[in-house]
């Protein structure tokens, strides 16, 4: 019987899935199994669109189609929690299994606390993540540093601190991620600051770290984090849709070491972004940044924690942000901040869509980290721990 905290190496016995999957196809096999057994009504995963810079969230109901979503898309800077909440009605009507990077998983947890996502109907298949790459910049970086036409790239991955780029004619090149990031490329800036690489708040966490020996690259490391995760994995193993073995102790050690090294690196980036640059330290600097705003509402639309159906920024009774003014009153950002900042999971979506290039994720992440110290509240981890500033007891219909 599988139990919480159990760890395995897992791969798919199905040759086609194993070959299509990133590291042996265990995730794809589990998702397919969940659909076949009617444990879920749908799977929310990610499919390659036009090319590998185009990651598309996809709702799948036919088990035979799950294989189309196999593989890891590192330029997939997606907002799975928003898709689940806004476009799939918070899984109120459907049981859904969703692949979640840690920031997605943490945001889903925050939305579950706010009753915006139905916890009973969601299975989180966590995907370890050391960071994602912004697609447009990634193309530019590949041309500039690797001297490769980005359209010829078939695979990209971060391995041993290098970003490895592989082309269709088997050309492979790698450059240190530090070098790329010091030159302003590499992972998204919010990802560099992220301290959560293993989604412990998901039901299962799956990744390649720690898979060594003959299984290296051919299997995925699974860790169980909930009763739900244990039950699913147990059923999958008993149904023979997964081949599992115990992980090598040295592999567990390596996985822990890499995770620690990544957390240290994230802390260095936090120091660099929040302190050393001496930017965004006071109100005047925030106001300078907010003065660039063109009030496109992109940040509000993209923010998964901004879920109110009627936004108080537009309230008729309290004229927080007078109409027809550009830049808008800074209250636009301050009211929004008050609503989401205690639950900000540094997903980076606000900054990614901002046409005025306001470093929104950096601002909100910095404030969130300070709040974490004050309230001892880490967003996205513990479902029982309530966000310190937000009203969380409203029913979805009241929002
Ligand atoms: P597959 O069977 O290939 O299934 C992968 C699943 O992930 C598919 O369902 C696919 O739709 C989904 N998916 C693909 N891209 C995304 C995305 N951007 N967001 C959400 N879901 C997605 N493992 C580590 O141990 N360390 C890392 O640093 C690490 N970084 C990663 C970064 C990214 C952006 C991604 C997507 C994965 C990362 N992984 C990392 C996980 C690893 O690459 C494999 O996904 C994992 O080992 C599972 O392998 P598999 O063959 O079982 O998965």
Automatic annotation (TrEMBL):
Which GO MF terms are attached to this record? Answer: formate dehydrogenase (coenzyme F420) activity; iron-sulfur cluster binding; metal ion binding; oxidoreductase activity, acting on CH or CH2 groups, with an iron-sulfur protein as acceptor
- What EC number(s) does its UniProt record assign? 1.17.98.3
Gene3D superfamilies the UniProt entry points to: Alpha-helical ferredoxin
Query: What residue stretches are annotated with the 4Fe-4S ferredoxin-type domain?
Result: 283-304, 335-364
**Catalysis: reaction(s):** oxidized coenzyme F420-(gamma-L-Glu)(n) + formate + 2 H(+) = reduced coenzyme F420-(gamma-L-Glu)(n) + CO2
The coenzyme or cofactor needed here is: Zn(2+); FAD
Q: Which UniProt keywords apply?
A: Iron, Iron-sulfur, Metal-binding, Oxidoreductase, Zinc
InterPro entries, A to Z:
4Fe4S_Fe-S-bd, 4Fe4S_Fe_S_CS, Co_F420_Hydgase/DH_bsu_N, FRHB/FDHB/HCAR-like, FrhB_FdhB_C, Helical_ferredxn
Q: Note the coiled coil stretches, chain numbering.
A: none
Q: Known PANTHER family for this protein?
A: 7-HYDROXYMETHYL CHLOROPHYLL A REDUCTASE, CHLOROPLASTIC (PTHR31332), FORMATE DEHYDROGENASE SUBUNIT BETA (PTHR31332:SF6)
- The protein depicted here goes by the name formate dehydrogenase (coenzyme F420)
From what organism does this protein derive? Methanobacterium formicicum (strain DSM 3637 / PP1)
């Amino acid at each position: 019987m599988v139990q919480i905290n159990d760890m395995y190496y897992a791969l798919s016995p199905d040759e086609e899935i194993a070959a299509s999957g990133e590291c042996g196809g265990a995730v794809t096999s589990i998702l397919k199994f969940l659909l076949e057994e009617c444990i879920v009504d749908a799977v929310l995963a990610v499919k390659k669109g036009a090319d590998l810079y185009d990651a598309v969230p996809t709702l799948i109901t036919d088990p035979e189609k799950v294989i189309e979503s196999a593989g890891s898309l590192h330029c997939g800077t997606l907002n799975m929690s928003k898709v689940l909440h806004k476009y799939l009605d918070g899984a109120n009507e459907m049981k859904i299994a969703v692949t979640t990077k840690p920031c997605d998983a943490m945001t889903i947890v925050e939305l579950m606390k706010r009753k915006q996502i139905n916890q009973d109907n969601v299975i989180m298949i966590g995907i370890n993540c050391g960071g994602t790459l912004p697609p447009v910049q990634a193309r530019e970086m590949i041309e500039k540093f690797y001297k490769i036409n980005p359209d010829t790239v078939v695979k990209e991955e971060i391995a041993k601190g290098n970003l490895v780029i592989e082309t269709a004619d088997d050309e492979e090149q790698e450059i240190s991620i530090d070098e790329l990031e010091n030159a302003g490329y590499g992972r998204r800036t919010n990802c560099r600051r992220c301290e959560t690489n293993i989604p412990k708040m998901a039901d299962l966490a799956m990744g390649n770290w720690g898979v060594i020996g003959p299984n290296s690259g051919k299997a995925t490391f699974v860790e169980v984090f909930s009763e739900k995760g244990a039950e699913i994995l147990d059923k999958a193993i008993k149904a023979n849709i997964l081949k599992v073995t115990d992980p090598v102790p040295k592999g567990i050690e390596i996985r822990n070491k890499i995770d620690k090294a990544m957390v240290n690196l994230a802390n260095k980036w936090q120091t660099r972004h929040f302190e050393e640059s001496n930017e965004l330290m006071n109100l005047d600097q925030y106001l300078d940044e907010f003065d660039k705003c063109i009030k496109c509402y992109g940040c509000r639309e993209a923010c998964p924690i901004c879920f109110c159906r009627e936004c108080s920024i537009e309230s008729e009774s309290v004229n927080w942000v007078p109409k027809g003014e550009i830049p808008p009153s800074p209250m636009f950002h301050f009211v929004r901040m008050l609503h989401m900042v205690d639950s900000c999971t540094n997903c980076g979506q606000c900054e990614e869509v901002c046409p005025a290039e306001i470093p929104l994720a950096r601002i909100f992440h910095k404030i969130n980290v300070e709040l974490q110290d004050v309230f001892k509240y880490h967003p996205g981890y513990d479902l029982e721990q309530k966000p310190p500033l937000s009203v969380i007891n409203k029913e979805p219909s009241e929002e």
